[in-house]
Amino acid sequence: MVRVAALITFLACVVLSEALHEPGYCAFYEECGLNPSVGGTLIPPIVPCLNYSQARPILGDHYKKLQQVCPMLAQGEGNTFACCSIKQLNSLETSLTLSKAVLIRCPSCADNFAHLHCITTCSPNQSQIVKVTKVMNVTQLVGNPKEAVVGYQAFLTTNFADASFQSCKNVRIPATGGFAIATMCGRYGAKLCTPQRWFDFQGDSSNGLAPLDIDFQLMKEGDTTGVPEGVIPYNGRALGCNETTPSGGEACSCQDCQESCPSVPPPEPPTPPFTLLGIDGYLLISIILLCLLNSNEIPQQAIHPSEVTCADKNSLAAQAFLSSLFRAWGTVMATYPLMVLLLSAVIVAVFAAGLKSIELTTDPVELWSAPNSRARQEKEFHDTHFDPFFRTNQLILTAPGREGYIYDSLLFGPQNFSGLVSKDLIIELLELQTRIQFWSEDLNRTASLKDVCFAPLNPSNPSLTDCAVNSLPQYFQNSLDNINAKVNMTELGVTKEVDWRDHLIYCLNSPLSFKDITDLGMSCMADYGAPVFSFLAVGGYSNDDFTNAEAFIMTFSLNNYARSNPKFNVAMQWESEFLKIVQDYQKNPAANFTFAYMAERSLEDEINRTTAEDIPIFMISYAVIFVYIAVALGEYSSCKRILVDSKFLVGLGGILVVGCSVLSSMGFYSWIGIPSSLVILQVVPFLVLAVGADNIFIFVLEYQRDVRRPGEKREEQIGRVLGNVAPSMLLCSLSESVCFFLGALSTMPAVKSFALYAALAVLMDFVLQMTAFVALMSLDARRQDSNRCELLCCVKVGKERSNKPNEGFLLPFMRKFYAPVLLHRFTRVIVMLVFIIMLCGSLYLMFNVTVGLDQELAMPKGSYMLDYFQYLYKYFEVGAPVYFVTKKGFNFTSVEGMNAVCSSVGCDQFSLAQKIQYATNYPERSYLGIPANSWVDDFIDWLNPGSKCCRLYTLGPNAGNFCPANQSAFLCGRKCMATPSDGVLRPTVEQFNRFLPDFLGNRPDLQCSKGGLGAYDKAVVRDEGGEIIASRFMAYHTPLTNSQEFTAALLMARELADNITKGMRKIPGTSPDFEVFPYTVTNVFYEQYLTIVPEGLFSISLCLLPTFVVCCLLLGLDLRSGLLNLLTIIMIVVDTVGVMTLWGIDYNAVALINLVTAVGISVEFVSHMTRSFALSIKPTHVERAKEATANMGSAVFAGVAMTNLPGILVLAFAKAQLIQIFFFRLNLVITLLGMAHGLIFLPVLLSYFGPGVNKAVLLQEQLKANSKANDELRMRNHVKQVYDNLSYEENEVKGDPPSPSDASRSSEFTEKQWEDKIDHF
């Protein structure tokens, strides 16, 4: 038997070696049967019979079929000869149909592809083009065995081969955005594909499509090396992709053919930075401003007596009115302290009762994106018409330390494999993938991935294998048997074992293949029916060296249910189990992976977790502030009276007042349904404490420094002291409250709610200070006057309280040392120079502040999400998907409408899909990496009669209905549409509406890869009348790594969408309000950074306005004081932004909230000092500045600076990076700059430019002095008269002395006279 086989082989070789190559002769003819050496093919591998004979004339139906399949060979009936039978033409048509399904977008490419195979199969000069190299005996169904050709060489010139390849290499697959050539070039993919590799793949019988082996020999023209005698390499003319086909097909579109593209100018370069004279413009302006501010000599103001102006009168009247009002108010509050406290507690309780219905907003979308913002409206439109973007749960796994190796593949040659890409790790990854299941209370059964997963091809009743899980094991259909499969394979006479590595190499380069080219014969498609692109399975590779990747990527996609849907809770449970399992796996010492992970819920979970963990830090911060206030408010005049003069309970009362004001504010807004947030809970108490503590210190210190007048009651003294300081407290509190109320005009929800809560809290704090705290002071003063200890009220101290004012340590220090040094003439010049330099430098830095908030900053240190972000930026090769969404108002059913959207042959050169394609040519500017898929293109290709996709039943009960491609041709003999004469297929309106639902419901398979189920069934939304009211086209961003890139990508996508909208509105019948917009899940977070600079300027300007207006009004229209007040606060804000740039603090919504807070705190540092200076009657500006610095500066330093700093320093120990950066760093900057400007710069500024002495106040003091002098004169006269009377009595001269009542009446008259003068004035 062996000898017979050897003899047959020998004879076959002899026959083949003696084959002739002559014109007009065939090398093979007619079909012999199935190729016995090929198995598991996607179509029957029918091979021709060896038959060296003359070409046959083609007539009748034979000719019609030839003209249909191979029109380039048709020379007219009667003049046409060919080497193929009608059966061979039918088989060739079937084979070409599969390839044409992806190439038909470009008619010239499809024509060249058919040209190639028609020449080798049917050319009348076949023997001059091919050389049979291998035959086998094949037994036919009827008859004797025949020799069949199972391998041959085909000789082509490189001119023809290169031109054919060039016409096809850029043809796209709209559903994926990739190139069709990638599926037709084996392991090389689109980037490494060459004409030789392309032809080799087509001639490889292991690809599941070729029925036999074809060895394509590409010969340069004139080169005969290795060419058998008589063979003439075929040198036909291949069409260029920008040429029309002989059958009338139009040139390929720009997206599929670069030669067809119009001349599109490159995008304009980005706007260059602002420069003047070749240097940074902002820097130059800052330098010029610095020179101007320092070029003028600053004159020292001197007081020149003059007549009292109207402004002076208004100022005095305002101060007198407020002082008298608060004096009377304070007296009443101090007289009835218990009643006041009770009423205050009742009011607070009523307000705070609203907390029972408080709502905390934790959803980042609700916090940072305004409901009426463009991004929110676009998200609402997208989620309403399409399903919300699925929930992503992801693992990125690495295996550092494992050595890579080189695998010598039989088919692909030496290949680099990293230590990660190993069989044991792939199996371990597969085991990890299948672990997650749990008991669900919502479903009342055990739940698993299938209950919540995104299943694009079977959404109604998915099984586990229908779930969209993208991972490397999907190339093996998640089958352990497929991973372990191996087989011996012979290639070019070499036999070697092929295994999972060969399959993986092929699939990573050709993920759309239904069958690899190895003898394993396995599919590359995932078990849920869709391809897994290499960038979704592996990461950390370069130059498409996928097997040398550094990371595996595994992604579970879950349906994004509404929060009201019970399955939302199931999805959240699944994600919790997912996190628990991967965290347990991470702790397992036997695990071979080092990995990072995340779930859709991770961001919110981690933010909530770190907030809860940092609550103790805030509590400690408030406790430190409380201890400081309690200690600092004490008088400590004597060691024996420490327990009496301490102010522990007063400090506690002050803290309680702050707490009650915050609770009242939160309760009130909860009553009316305005939600709160964690930002409010963290910031508002801190702000109100800073503001409230300042007022407390001013009031208490003023009381301690005051001496009770003779005959004055304690309550009257408290009222008088309150009358002195309450106008200043009102000035600051009212400024801040109005400031925050105006800040609520912000469109950003978090800023708006913060401003509302802060405004009412500040206002309530002032009200409670004027009531409850005054009552507490009255009770404490009563205790102190009784010499009772503070905490032990029953214990008395024998040492009496001194009646001298208690100035403490700070006031004398600032009066004797600090103020004189600060306001020395040389020091003042230095201070002005330094602060002006700071302002100019900060102005320059302000224009260079980084705008944005990287999402990793929202995570606490040590969070697993930080590792995930690091892995994501390092290993991912593509960015997030971006959808270009069309709204209602565009007619897709018209030819003009389809052409304005599609990108294939006959489409507009500036259509929707084409403009997106142009943008991807400049990824560094557009941030688009992969072009958009297009359901319109695939729908047109699906309708093309050149493919098997759209057919109609001709038999059976479904006759006339759509017939899927996997049905027999016997049942479905009719095409949906006829072949157009010009090659540009466009359905009529009726056909469009009839077949679109069939397209969207057609599951893609090998017979028809263009089916729309999974890719497009949710991308097209129609109303009840069939009109398309929404559709979307998905592209991909380039990898985006920070908020600046996300923001720039959003801006560029919107510019592109606006350009597309303008173009599509020009199509007849388009509604004028039709719109195309880009949608990415991150848009709602990053849109704020497009407008946050003008939004911030608007908010801060609104806050600055009341500080100026209120200051002017309460100081009696004192414009100069108001302007100086405003200037200093602006400088604090500008310098804060400048330091933000230096310290790496980005400008964002959280920073904006703190900057609004900075305005409020700055008012405390500045307004008290300004008012104190304005009311001073010292003779010179410098002396008035010294007085204000000593008296009010000491209270501001103790009440604002020293209250804030200890609490701020504690925040440095918080775990959350947001708190460390935006609460510790930024608040520290705000406090230090506020203190520097309020206690250093402002006194110097006032000493130069402060308002003059209020003449009305000066006149008032003069009248008081005159009255006092008159009283002293009258008293001296009275005393002299008494002595005279006594002397006269001794000399027996009798007289009646003036009665005491007379002296009293004299005194009363003088006082009344003085008051009359004041009233007249």
TrEMBL record:
<dbReference type="GO" id="GO:0030301">
    <property type="term" value="P:cholesterol transport"/>
</dbReference>
<feature type="transmembrane region" description="Helical">
    <location>
        <begin position="334"/>
        <end position="355"/>
    </location>
</feature>
<dbReference type="GO" id="GO:0005886">
    <property type="term" value="C:plasma membrane"/>
</dbReference>
<feature type="domain" description="SSD">
    <location>
        <begin position="614"/>
        <end position="779"/>
    </location>
</feature>
<dbReference type="Pfam" id="PF12349">
    <property type="entry name" value="Sterol-sensing"/>
</dbReference>
<keyword id="KW-0732">Signal</keyword>
<keyword id="KW-0443">Lipid metabolism</keyword>
<feature type="transmembrane region" description="Helical">
    <location>
        <begin position="274"/>
        <end position="293"/>
    </location>
</feature>
<feature type="transmembrane region" description="Helical">
    <location>
        <begin position="1149"/>
        <end position="1167"/>
    </location>
</feature>
<feature type="compositionally biased region" description="Basic and acidic residues">
    <location>
        <begin position="1308"/>
        <end position="1321"/>
    </location>
</feature>
<feature type="transmembrane region" description="Helical">
    <location>
        <begin position="1096"/>
        <end position="1116"/>
    </location>
</feature>
<feature type="signal peptide">
    <location>
        <begin position="1"/>
        <end position="19"/>
    </location>
</feature>
<feature type="transmembrane region" description="Helical">
    <location>
        <begin position="826"/>
        <end position="847"/>
    </location>
</feature>
<dbReference type="GO" id="GO:0015485">
    <property type="term" value="F:cholesterol binding"/>
</dbReference>
<feature type="transmembrane region" description="Helical">
    <location>
        <begin position="721"/>
        <end position="748"/>
    </location>
</feature>
<keyword id="KW-0753">Steroid metabolism</keyword>
<feature type="transmembrane region" description="Helical">
    <location>
        <begin position="648"/>
        <end position="672"/>
    </location>
</feature>
<dbReference type="Pfam" id="PF22314">
    <property type="entry name" value="NPC1_MLD"/>
</dbReference>
<keyword id="KW-0153">Cholesterol metabolism</keyword>
<feature type="transmembrane region" description="Helical">
    <location>
        <begin position="754"/>
        <end position="779"/>
    </location>
</feature>
<keyword id="KW-1207">Sterol metabolism</keyword>
<keyword id="KW-1133">Transmembrane helix</keyword>
<feature type="region of interest" description="Disordered">
    <location>
        <begin position="1288"/>
        <end position="1321"/>
    </location>
</feature>
<dbReference type="GO" id="GO:0030299">
    <property type="term" value="P:intestinal cholesterol absorption"/>
</dbReference>
<feature type="transmembrane region" description="Helical">
    <location>
        <begin position="1188"/>
        <end position="1214"/>
    </location>
</feature>
<keyword id="KW-0325">Glycoprotein</keyword>
<keyword id="KW-0472">Membrane</keyword>
<dbReference type="InterPro" id="IPR053956">
    <property type="entry name" value="NPC1_MLD"/>
</dbReference>
<feature type="transmembrane region" description="Helical">
    <location>
        <begin position="615"/>
        <end position="636"/>
    </location>
</feature>
<dbReference type="GO" id="GO:0012505">
    <property type="term" value="C:endomembrane system"/>
</dbReference>
<keyword id="KW-1015">Disulfide bond</keyword>
<feature type="transmembrane region" description="Helical">
    <location>
        <begin position="1226"/>
        <end position="1249"/>
    </location>
</feature>
<comment type="similarity">
    <text>Belongs to the patched family.</text>
</comment>
<dbReference type="InterPro" id="IPR000731">
    <property type="entry name" value="SSD"/>
</dbReference>
<dbReference type="GO" id="GO:0008203">
    <property type="term" value="P:cholesterol metabolic process"/>
</dbReference>
<protein>
    <recommendedName>
        <fullName>SSD domain-containing protein</fullName>
    </recommendedName>
</protein>
<feature type="transmembrane region" description="Helical">
    <location>
        <begin position="1123"/>
        <end position="1143"/>
    </location>
</feature>
<dbReference type="InterPro" id="IPR053958">
    <property type="entry name" value="HMGCR/SNAP/NPC1-like_SSD"/>
</dbReference>
<feature type="transmembrane region" description="Helical">
    <location>
        <begin position="678"/>
        <end position="701"/>
    </location>
</feature>
<dbReference type="InterPro" id="IPR032190">
    <property type="entry name" value="NPC1_N"/>
</dbReference>
<keyword id="KW-0812">Transmembrane</keyword>
<dbReference type="Pfam" id="PF16414">
    <property type="entry name" value="NPC1_N"/>
</dbReference>
